[in-house]
Design goal:
Blueprint: H1 7-26, H2 33-54, H3 63-88, H4 90-97
Length: 108
Amino acid sequence: MTVHLDAAYWLGLLTSVVLPVLVGLVTTRVTSPGAKGILLLALSTVNGFVVEYAAPHDASYSVGTAAVLALVSFGMGVLMHFGLWKPTGVSAAAQNVLITASPSTPGA
């Protein structure tokens, strides 16, 4: 049996690897883990449906395949977060990128 994945599927997997870092970039440290998880799920769903749309295939667009790709993307994102990004400190570094000093209040 020969397995062949088109470039769109490989790009979708690569996107799944960096999605947790993207979530870290657009959220703060005080954002609840549940909100971060929902954001990761939403981005994974978009990734799955875009990959299925962009992939060249003989049959028409398949919502079922897009849903499976979204689940794979979400699972990959969660595994990458807890298995690679968090232990190496990349998640924390991503959280610090967009943090700016709060403006000082007059008279304080």
